[in-house]
Amino acid sequence: MSSVNLNSQKNLNNLLVDDGVCLRGRVTPEYEEILTPEALRFLARMSRRFESTRRQLLANRIKRYAEIKDGKLPDFLPETASIRESDWTVAPIPKDLQDRRVEITGPVDRKMVINALNSGANVFMADFEDAHTPTWDNNLEGQINLRDAVVNSISFTSPQGKHYELSEELATLLVRPRGWHLVEKHLLIDGEPISGSLFDFGLYFFHNVEARLRRNTAPYFYLPKMESHLEARLWNEVFKFAEDELNVGQVCRGTVLIETIMAAFEMDEILYELRDHSAGLNCGRWDYIFSFIKKFRHDPAFVLPDRIRVGMDQHFLASYVELLIKTCHRRGIHAMGGMAAQIPIKADLEANEQAIEKVRQDKFREVRAGHDGTWVAHPGLVSVAREIFDEHMTTPNQISLSRDEVSVNAKDLLMVPEGSITEEGLRINCDVGIQYLESWLRGVGCVPIYNLMEDAATAEISRSQVWHWVQHEAQMVDGRTVTTDLVRTTISQQLEKVRDLVGSERYDAGKFELASEIFEEMMTSNNYSDFLTVVAYEHID
To answer: Is the pTM of this model over 0.85?
Structure first.
């Protein structure tokens, strides 16, 4: 840390010592524009108000998993039946969220923010979560980038001299903060790290709410990784607290990602808790699969086949989609589709057309099911998704499509897909997982690997699935058992292939060895870690 940055950090800490605030990250002159004393005091007030509740909700997750291990499988809650059975709707939809047919997602680096806002998508989800490595610099630069984007002053010039700036027609901005399980270790409140959720949300809201309102929009959010309606209630209380603190009225809207198996049983309740602030639900398919593995990891009956075989046509995933659409439309709000992982392949026209066709089929499935919009990971896919939705959804959304014929029960949501486990599936999990984690450790949280856009969710599936196979001695189609020794041998072999792929210079300069050590431990240890990103966070600054 330079002497200037160190002095800025010390000055802020001295100024805020009586407020219980301690910064442990460097403070550049640019960062000081975000880390103002007023903003930090705002974060401190939020943290004191909500930290104990956050911790209790995380403890509830542990307690609920213990009940699942004891045989109490997830089901719809009897104590909230009246909410599911009664007629109510969420607050009216803001004008700039009526049409969300194509949403592009990506990290908050400067070039990505500009390209995504310019992409022709209806919405850009700026991601501080699964597509983002939460280094201190990434977090603060992301806040700077969003602040500049909100007032249309953002620009960027690449090392090659190419200039980027905003165009006239821009996507509506939504921001995804980190989940409740993550912390920001560089900011302590009363000696404890602040919630990553509150840090990301709080800084963006504090610095941008008035500018958003002046432009006839508002702070909109995607809310990740929730496991119960009580966690949605906490977000609603956070929204109300922030609105009251800054005296701006009821302006926040949040779209909840239904990306855990537990949340799938509480969709109505989640919408109800956020009914004054809701912008709908989204099918977070990749994290949902990860959650399915994680919550039933103790049970050999829930062992899944190769990741590539767990598609949206599987009964448990199709049921979750139909229930989400029915629930949202009954409550008068959007049911958003998920991400197709394919990206354009410029160097191979045939492979590119195959990838594009997979995206077309995925988006056709979504729009015909009743989704009101979908996600893409690359600007080159915006027009592909838009073409499908424009053809089959001629109105801004299809919330009026009730799907009353849908009937989904617990058995549907818990039906384990059949399929084989192969050596190729094991190799892909090890290979992709390590390559992704290596990128994440270098500060890049969203990366194309073998022509698919990978983020933390797919890495979580990879390591959790292999762990599950090892623990339950799963058999591959060739008759061999997935063992710790086989996993270690596979990792070693895949690392050599990665070295050949990227070259010795790139390999040696990277973090492949550290990534493989972390991944191997997480796949072969008897103890299961709930989140890869929590473990890996200890290795970044």
So the answer is: yes
